[in-house]
Recover the amino acids of this structure.
């Protein structure tokens, strides 16, 4: 029974999706101020937060502004209108930006002590300025296109996230000022930072341009030069992705009207108020709310360039993923899987290359393999995954790939990959109309000695070589009959879209079964707890946003079930409210790898159930995507998943505990406790497993 004092329909029990995501970025930014983080890694975290905030403006603020433009006033579960959310988000972003500037100032000073200097133009020697002018003339000047802004010239198109100079000029004998815009040509081989001299001293490209404008405007007097940057709404196309939940309420004809194509204008500190007002007016922005004055450098996401400098002591210790101890390199991988039945993979602790990529590579070249089917959401354009699929097709195998064309910011890559694969004779389909294909699944059909046998990989992360080294994910390689049969059904659904009744025995796909599976198991945990006590739920995910799941967890907590949630970023649920959620703990892990795995655990009165999934507990994942929830049953594999969750509990370095108001406190080691973070513990565990496997190998055979 629900406690009468808690009406779960009330908005006060829910936190805002956007504001809790911004709170996550405060935790990421903390890594840039934490003295335990190596210096160049601190710089990297500043770049990550900058990039995240750019994307937030493009997608989330963009989507909210379209709702405002369409006249929508629907309230979120936490009781906010689109306009309220924009105002509160902007205030939070300003606070994070100010903290980020301070972090950058501090890190910049510390880097100078190590010989890594981001110079200002006025501190350069005459000789350095001369050399830079020559460099500018040869390498930058030919790329520039100055554009006049006056009644005879329409206001120029300003591209998304570009840096721009606003130059005020006049003829020597005239009092009249004229304006020109010059785009800073970063990208396609042009770096943001130019090396000064032979050491690691750098100057931002815009400072070199600003101090050599006489070449662009010969014979003119440069009155002033100011800098600005524009962020465009990434949801102005009809195939928006990340903010599709924001767009779902807007009728299709409204989607096509480009509301709020520009969402933010950043200007350098001290810009002439007249110029600032003019830019805001030309870009159709509200000067008070949509214009952000920035002190110091704009576009700090470009600091990634400097964070990659080769100073081993200023980086995290190198991490080398191990080969999975059970996937013996000298033996056919399918024979190994057949003997083991299932293998759990933990990336990046276990090598993606010698597990998942090897699985595909061997499938492509094994003469007994008949068919390969696979979903692709994101992958590297020059990756070994595509090479293996093409090789398989060339070897005469039947290869079918379901490509998600609307994977955010990877649309162009995926279209190109689809064309490459089709040319190689691969059957390419694009999933089910109206649903995004987000599950990560490979099916290999092989002729074994007893007939056809199916081998499956199901993962929580993308089939992407680069991110597999930076994201923390789990995967399962198995030849379990029930899972293999379900995955066959899943591919038949993905390639036809037919929703005829499909009998899934083990794997539970979204949108049909996954959400129902989670809700019924939460309810079952409540019933079991009422009968026998000991109810326990542990979820690890990137985000908890779905209102139905939050309400179910509240009800379970009120019934006395203990609930541990490890949620990386967005979390609508408020833990620790007496009577409502005092049995719920929420923790967030922020470390060198991006936490990306989804694990769902139910104690089930001792008959424990573990699942891995491609889906977070978000409405769009559960209701508008094809996702999978896959059981992991073997005791040695569930022990590994339990160890992952236990590391989260034991973490006293990178874990943050959520408070009832949505703020977070970082855990601190007390005397005698290890100050290790989850990821360090998992690296150590993977190495220990390898060591034990090698020891077993060396043991003499028993006679």
């Amino acid at each position: 029974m629900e406690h009468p004092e808690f009406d779960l329909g009330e908005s006060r029990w829910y936190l805002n999706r956007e504001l809790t995501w911004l709170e996550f970025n405060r935790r990421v930014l903390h890594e840039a101020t934490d003295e335990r983080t190596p210096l160049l890694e601190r710089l990297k975290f500043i770049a990550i937060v900058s990039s995240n905030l750019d994307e937030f403006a493009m997608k989330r603020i963009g989507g909210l502004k379209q709702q405002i433009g369409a006249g929508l006033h629907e309230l979120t579960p936490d009781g906010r209108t689109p306009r309220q959310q924009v105002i509160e988000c902007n205030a939070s972003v300003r606070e994070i930006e100010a903290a980020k500037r301070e972090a950058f100032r501090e890190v910049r000073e510390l880097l100078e002590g190590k010989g890594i200097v981001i110079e200002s133009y006025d501190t350069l020697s005459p000789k350095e300025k001369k050399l830079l002018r020559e460099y500018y003339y040869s390498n930058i000047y030919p790329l520039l296109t100055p554009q006049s802004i006056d009644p005879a010239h329409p206001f120029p198109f300003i591209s998304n996230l570009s840096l721009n100079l606003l130059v005020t000029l006049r003829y020597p004998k005239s009092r009249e000022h004229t304006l020109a815009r010059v785009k800073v040509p970063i990208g396609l081989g042009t770096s943001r930072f130019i090396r000064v001299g032979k050491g690691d001293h750098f100057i931002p490209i815009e400072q070199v341009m600003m101090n050599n404008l006489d070449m662009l405007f010969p014979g003119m007097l440069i009155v002033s030069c100011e800098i600005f940057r524009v962020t465009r709404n990434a949801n102005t196309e009809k195939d928006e992705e990340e903010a599709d939940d924001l767009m779902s309420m807007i009728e299709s004809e409204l989607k096509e009207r480009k509301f709020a194509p520009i969402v933010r204008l950043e200007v350098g500190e001290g810009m002439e108020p007249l110029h600032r007002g003019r830019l805001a007016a030309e870009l159709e922005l509200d000067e008070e709310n949509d214009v952000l004055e920035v002190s110091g450098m704009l576009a700090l996401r470009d600091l990634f360039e400097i964070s990659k400098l080769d100073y081993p002591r200023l980086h995290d210790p190198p991490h080398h993923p191990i080969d999975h101890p059970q996937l013996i390199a000298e033996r056919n991988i399918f024979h190994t899987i057949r003997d083991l039945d299932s293998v759990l993979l933990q990336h990046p602790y276990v090598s993606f290359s010698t597990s998942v990529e090897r699985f595909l590579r061997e499938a492509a070249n094994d003469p007994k393999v008949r068919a390969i089917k696979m979903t692709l959401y994101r992958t590297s354009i020059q990756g070994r995954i595509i090479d293996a699929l093409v090789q398989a097709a060339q070897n005469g195998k039947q290869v079918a790939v379901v490509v998600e064309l609307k994977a955010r910011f990877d649309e162009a890559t995926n279209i190109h990959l689809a064309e490459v694969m089709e040319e190689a004779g691969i059957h390419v389909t694009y999933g089910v109309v109206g649903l995004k294909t987000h599950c990560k699944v490979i099916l290999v059909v092989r002729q074994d000695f007893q007939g056809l046998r199916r081998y499956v990989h199901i993962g929580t992360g993308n089939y992407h070589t680069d991110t597999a080294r930076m994201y923390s994910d789990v995967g399962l390689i198995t030849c379990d009959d029930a899972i293999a049969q379900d995955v066959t059904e899943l591919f038949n659904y993905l390639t036809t879209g037919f929703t005829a009744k499909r009998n899934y025995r083990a794997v539970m796909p979204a949108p049909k079964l996954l959400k129902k599976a989670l809700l019924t198991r939460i309810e079952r945990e409540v019933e079991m707890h009422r009968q026998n006590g000991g109810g326990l739920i542990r979820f690890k995910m990137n985000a908890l946003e779905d209102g139905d799941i939050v309400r179910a967890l509240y009800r379970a907590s009120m019934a006395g079930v203990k609930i541990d949630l490890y949620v990386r970023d967005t979390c609508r649920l408020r833990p620790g409210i007496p009577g409502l959620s005092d049995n719920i703990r929420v923790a967030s892990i922020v470390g060198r790898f991006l936490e990306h795995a989804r694990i769902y655990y139910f104690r089930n009165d001792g008959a424990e159930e573990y699942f891995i999934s491609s889906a977070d507990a978000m409405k769009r994942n559960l209701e508008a995507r094809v996702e999978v929830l896959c059981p992991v049953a073997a005791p040695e594999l569930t022990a590994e998943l339990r160890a992952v969750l236990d590391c989260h509990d034991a973490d006293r370095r990178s874990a943050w505990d959520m408070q009832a108001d949505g703020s977070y406190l970082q855990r601190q080691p007390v005397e005698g406790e290890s100050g290790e973070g989850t990821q360090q513990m998992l690296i150590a565990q993977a190495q220990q497993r390898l060591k034990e496997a090698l020891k077993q190998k060396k043991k003499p055979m028993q006679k």
